[in-house]
Amino acid sequence: MSTPFPPPPAAGKPARKIWPWALGGCLLLVLLGVLAVGGIAWFGFKQLGTQTQAVVQGLPGVQEHFGTVSDAGMDLAAMGQQPGAMVFTITGDKGTGTLRVNLDPLSGEFRSATLTLPNGETREIDPNLLQPLEGLMQGQIPTPN
User: 68 near 92, Cβ under 8 Å?
Assistant: First the structure.
């Protein structure tokens, strides 16, 4: 009596590999997170620029020498070259200039400010006029007039 060999096992489906899908899902989540943080940062800088523009427009001499201010954003390159200062580039109908605000190294309070007009002339600005801007830099939301 001979016993027959058992039939060979049926070829099953190969096991699916889950790790490529898991890795792709993680990368997608990281990409979405980076986009969300970037969008929030962009919105924050845009709001900061809008509020800065309103404060700068009210400074003495700005309306006269710049006209209506269309942009008043931070100049990060100039701030890197001038430590201890915040530098804003002011663009108006009549030209472009800068507002340089010197900060106290310990407290971060505004100490002095210099406005450079489109013709190259510089004027000292009373730091008390910049209190709304100082509050804005410290995260306070200005109240509408």
Answer: yes
DSSP letter (8 states) at residue 84: T
Each residue's pLDDT expressed in tens, for the chain with a length of 145 residues: 577 778 777 777 776 788 888 899 999 999 999 999 999 988 887 877 787 788 888 877 788 888 888 888 888 888 788 778 888 888 888 888 888 888 887 777 778 888 888 888 888 877 777 777 766 666 665 555 5
SS3 of residue 79 by DSSP = helix
* Entry pTM: 0.63
Q: What are phi and psi of 24, to 5 degrees?
A: -65, -40
30, two tokens: 């990281």
Give the CA dihedral 41, 43, 47, 52, nearest 10 degrees. Answer: 50
Which of 102, 95, 85 lies closest to 61 in space, CA to CA? 95
Burial of 52 (0-12, 13-18, 19+ CB in 10 A): buried
What are 73's strand-pairing partners? 89
Which tokens in the block code for residue 110?
A: 């505004």
d(Cα 89, Cα 73) in Å, to the nearest integer?
A: 6
